[in-house]
Amino acid sequence: MTSHRAHWAGRAALTATACALVLSACTDESDPSSVASRAASAAESVGGRAASAFASATAEAGRKLDSIKGGVEAKADVKLGTPSTDADGRTTVDVTATNPDDSTRSFAVQVDFKDPDGTWRDTVLVTVPDVPPGTSRKATARSTRKLPDGTRAEVPRAVRY
After folding, report:
1. How far is 25 from 40, CA to CA, in rounded Å?
2. How many C-beta atoms lie closer than 10 Å to residue 92's C-beta?
3. DSSP secondary structure, 93-105, as one string
4. Which of 45, 55, 72, 125 falls 20 to 30 Å from 160 in CA-CA distance?
5. What is the band of 51 on the pLDDT scale with cuts at 50, 70, 90?
6. Distance CA 138, CA 13 (A)
7. What is the pLDDT, as a whole number, of residue 35?
8. Where would I find the H helices in the chain?
9. Mean pLDDT of the region 3-29
10. Rounded to an integer, what distance in angstroms lies between the CA atom of residue 161 and that of residue 153?
11. Higher pLDDT, 134 or 69
């Protein structure tokens, strides 16, 4: 999480600098520090909303995973395919869950989508139901919005139940 904050702080600083340059060129205000301060506040607000969205999405996924009764961590039993873009422009990725248990199990898998720079863009929770013992089943994770080309997917958490 720290790397996301640092990334957003860096982006906020760059945005503030760019805004200050643009605003100072486009306003009658003669005090550059005032212009820079307003630009920094605006950039901080944008970064704060993005960090808040990340925290909210991951917290919701975490609550759902934590609410599964009798579940065990199963991140090692889940593999992702290569992300692609569907006809609606959403990023999709195949989620393959392998059941090492001796009875049929289902999987709940958190999939985080990140842009090519590693910035978080979306989180979805996918269920892979009724995987027989010793076999694998697939499901598809689909982003909730259009994401940039080169988006990659990661599994921060998975639960077998």
Report:
1. 16
2. 19
3. EEEEEE--SSS-E
4. 55
5. low
6. 42
7. 37
8. 2-26, 32-66
9. 39
10. 23
11. 134
- Kindly calculate the radius of gyration of the chain based on its CA atoms and give it in whole angstroms: 21
Residue 60's pLDDT is 76
Residue appearing with tokens 């990340």:
54
Residues, the chain: 161
Residues 6+ apart with CB under 8 A from 26: none
Q: Which amino acid would we find at residue 72? A: V
At 137, is the pLDDT very low, low, confident or very high (cuts 50, 70, 90)? very high
Amino acid residing at 155: V
pLDDT of residue 69: 84
Residue type for position 38: R
Q: What is the Cα–Cα distance from 129 to 86, expressed in whole angstroms?
A: 23
**pTM, two decimal places:** 0.65
Whether 131 and 103 have beta carbons less than 8 Å apart is answered as: no
| Cβ pair 6, 47 in contact under 8 A | no
φ and ψ at residue 41, rounded to 5 degrees: -65, -40
Query: Residue 143 in contact with residue 121, Cβ under 8 Å?
Result: yes
Q: Do residues 55 and 8 touch, judged by C-beta distance below 8 A?
A: no
